[in-house]
User: Fold these one by one.
Assistant:
Number 1:
Amino acid sequence: MQPTHRNLAQLLGDARRWFDEGLVASLEAAGATLVSPPQVQLFAVLDDQGSTVSELARRMGVTRQTAHQAVHGLVGAGLLEQVPDPTSARRRLIRRTGEGERAHRQAGLILEGLEERLAERIGPEAVDALRAALEGPWGRPPSPGSQ
């Protein structure tokens, strides 16, 4: 039986999960507050000055309800807080607490270590080429009828 050809979107999803699983396992081993994959993703898209739940949902590519559930869990864990938006009386911003900042820095160090492990496995040149391709200007996604 011949292996199924996997498209690039599937491969990128697998790569993302590799990093997410490595991050969660390392955080757990360090005794950090346990977080779910959607909560990990939320932390990755959260602005330093804070973001609204709607903005987080859009960046994560999930429903507002899913983003709200992830926020609620992280607020309960003491990693995030909701504060009034100084530019709008109707909006609330989600931002990291002091403990959330510490966890964010710890996660950044773990991700750097995972990149080093990946470079050991596939070679530093491959990691550099992958980074260059992903950081390049892709433009907006094509729409039907566009070139």
Note: The first strand starts at residue 80 and ends at 85.
Number 2:
Amino acid sequence: MRIANIAGRIHLVREVGVLDIAKASDGRFPADPAGIYALWPALSEWAADQPDQAFSPAPDVAEFEAPSPQPRQVFTLGTNYRRHAVELGWPIPEVPMVFTKFPTSVAGPNARVGITGPRVDWEVELVVVIGTGGHRLSAEDAWSAVAGFTVGQDVSDRDVQRRPESNPQFGLGKSFPGFSPTGPVVVSLDEVGDPHDLGMRCWVNGELMQDGRSDDLVFSIPFLIEYLSGVVTLCPGDLIFTGTPSGVGSSRRPPRFLSPGDEVRSWIENIGEMTTRFVERP
């Protein structure tokens, strides 16, 4: 199953087009994307019975918005790709390095993002979207708590993140408005294939910067869900940015960062792609 937030209403997405879920279900399911994830098992069952002829042509991509626009919690994993840890010169972590991005940073797949300083960086990431969620979930039960997966960019202002260098503040440097673009769709586990073996790429102004696979993850997604839910309650619609492959700007020699006018295209196999445009900060 694939779903998308189109002009603020949740839709099923197929090759034949899109279906407004609230209208097609006669109100059984809400139009608001924020309310759909707690109902994921029932939605999956209902969606499987919807005929292709009920779908309408897909609208312009500009109408697609963040598939989970108001998550209660946004988690991010640092150095969760082996090659990325190596390029940073950091050891492979023995326990997950977890920090948060504040929910007000969440944006959609066509976001226009203000450049906040001279060292704004890109990081394509596979994002887990929580469905029913829960507390103290086991790794064996983790997939039952997940709605699906989407494409994400963990945009980072390295100056703010590393201010001061001796005591870096990860969350604030990654939480300016628009610094968590996501989309264009959420794809369920049965359609995405093996989430631990997906191609991931990121281009800046058409130049390939990141080209990796999720088989380089240090900690698996079920392990992360068990680890996080052992502390917090994972809520419907929450986002988990699972880490980035190698190729970020700050690790290049010389380093390379984003400027107004740049376009970042992010792609993940079996999910899709999105384009984030960077502009002068208002």
Note: The chain has a mean pLDDT of 96.
Number 3:
Amino acid sequence: MSDTVLDTAFFVRWMTAAAAAVEREADRLTELDSAIGDADHGSNMQRGFVAVAKMLQAGGPAAPGEVLAAAGRQLISSVGGASGPLYGSLLRRSGKALGEAAQVSRQELRAGLQAGVEAVAQLGGAAPGDKTMLDALVPAVEALDTSFEAAAAAAERGALATVPLLAKKGRASYLGERSIGHQDPGATSSALLFAALAEVAK
């Protein structure tokens, strides 16, 4: 799998699959967010990814990095709340790291996403264990070394592992102890992103 070559069409399929996954799971994301947030994560993410899918259908980005950067810009401009800037930074910085190459390898994608995850950590001032999207993103990117499937599984495990955590960042942190026992919506939507990646890679 290490010599897998990923082209622009692959990245368009990935973002389109992510949009479909967010669409499917929007109600669950909102339900999770209603317990410890503003109850808008599902609708915000859905609105953002619908806009991303529309933009990609219209054509435009000519390289893998451009697909991610354009998707990131779209999310920043169309998603409310904290998730727009965070997801936007993730994809924009990842896209920037991939540059203008017409094709990238799985290892190059991993390095690009690593840069994106660092941008998210910087912007949110969070670290793994704070009950945020980083709890899914960090293990997922590490597991990309192994395979796309391993990354998706690691993201899913990371999201589930947020249930017993005390939220230290974001809206959920205002709840203190009451944030314990709830799965983090951001980590859950991050897991959807990697599930879509594994699905498209098949």
Note: Helices lie at 8-36, 41-57, 64-78, 83-98, 106-124, 134-143, 148-160, 185-201.
Number 4:
Amino acid sequence: MPVELTAPASAESKSVLRLPGDPDIWFLIFAELMTFGMFFVAYVGYRALEVDLFNESQLSLDRTLGVINTLFLLTSSWAVVTAIESARKNQVKAVPRYLALAIALGVGFMVIKYFEYSAKFAVGISLTTNTFFNFYFALTMIHLVHVIGGTIVLIVLWSNARDGKYHAGNTRGLETGASFWHMVDLLWIFLFPLLYLLR
């Protein structure tokens, strides 16, 4: 029976799989995801013990604002991805424009959270009101800190991009900041249904 011999694949034909950005950022991302994961499990556990309280308290949240913030973060992640693609194509001038859009959407998220919190505080609802709001404020405020930190990272990337630092030969810093921002987005994708929609 004849045996068909196949030449070994060349180095060029082999696709190299790698995590985008600096490998160290992924240790931070995994640690953050694990920490939030434990909070999510605790939330579901406490919710099972006080279903009526959680459902009633949840009704006071503004789902429309929650949806808008979700769209803001999803669109901002798209903008960051497009900025990276632009850099890889050497479309250097497009990179800061997309990063500016992502920054504006991150700031928009913060503004909406400010109005959400203000509305709750105005009617006497706070972190200590009940178990649901303990989780709501703790989780969303921790996440908000991450949004603020991520937006600062995007501003640094935008400043570098304006100087033409990101191009086909240099996308590592851009990918590192983008990886953190995508994590912030991912956390909200879990937080939104847990806090606003789960019944």
Note: The two ends are 64 Å apart (CA to CA).
